[in-house]
Amino acid sequence: MRELHLVRSESTGSTLVLESPEGDRYSLAIDEVRSFLSPAEEKSEPRALPLRPRDIQDRIRGGATVSQVAEQMGVPEARVEPYAHPVLLERARIAELAKNSHPVREDGPARLSLWEVLATALAARGEDLTTSRWDAHREAGGQWIVVVTWGDHRAEWTLQNHTSASATTVARNPVASELMAPPRPAAVAAEEPPAEDEPQPEPKKRRKAVTPHWEDVLLGVRANTKRPR
C-alpha cells in the first residue's frame, strides 16, 4: 500500500489533494471522508406487529396480561400497552360492577350485594375481604367471568345482565358455591324437660296418745296396753 501525503496548499474546502513519494497527486472529496469517519445510522422502522391491534385487545379482554401478549409476539411491552390500556379499564369496570351485583342462590337473587355476602362469609372464617383482588375477563362467547382471589383461594362467578342496574352473579366453581351458601343458624341447645317432682314421702300420722285408765294404773297394767272395748 502506497503512503500519500496531504498537499495543504492545493486542498480546498471540498477536495483534498494527496501526493505520493513519486510525485503522483490524487484528489479525494471531503464528503467521502466525512461519511467514512461518521457513517449515518440507518433509521430502521419498527417492524410490524405480528397481531393486529384488535387481536391484541381480544387477548387482553380474554384475561391475558400485557407481559404475556408481548412475550408471545416477541416485542417489548411498551408496544402492547397502548392497545391494552382501554381494555384493562374495561375489565376493571366490569369487576367493580360485579361487587354491586346480587348473587343468585337456590331461592333467587340475594338482597345483599356480592361484596356484602362475601364480606360476611369470609369474616365468619376469620378472613378479610379487603385483601382480595377482583378481576374480570370475557370468554369467546361474550360471557363475562368475575374472578376474586385471596390467599390461595380463587372464586369465579358468571356475570349476568351487566348492562342493566339489576346485574346478578352465579357461582361458577365450588369455592364460589360454598361462599354463596346461606349462613346456618346457630345451634340451639335442646332444653331438658323439667324434672318431674319426686314423690315426697307422706308425713307419718301421729298416733293419738292414750290416757291410761285409773284402774290400769292401780293394777300395774302397762300404759300402752289397749283397753278392751
UniProtKB/TrEMBL annotation:
Pfam families: DUF3071. Residues 181-229 are annotated as: Disordered. It comes from the Bacteria. Residues 1-158 form the DUF3071 domain. InterPro entries: DUF3071, SepH-like. It comes from Corynebacterium mastitidis. This is DUF3071 domain-containing protein.
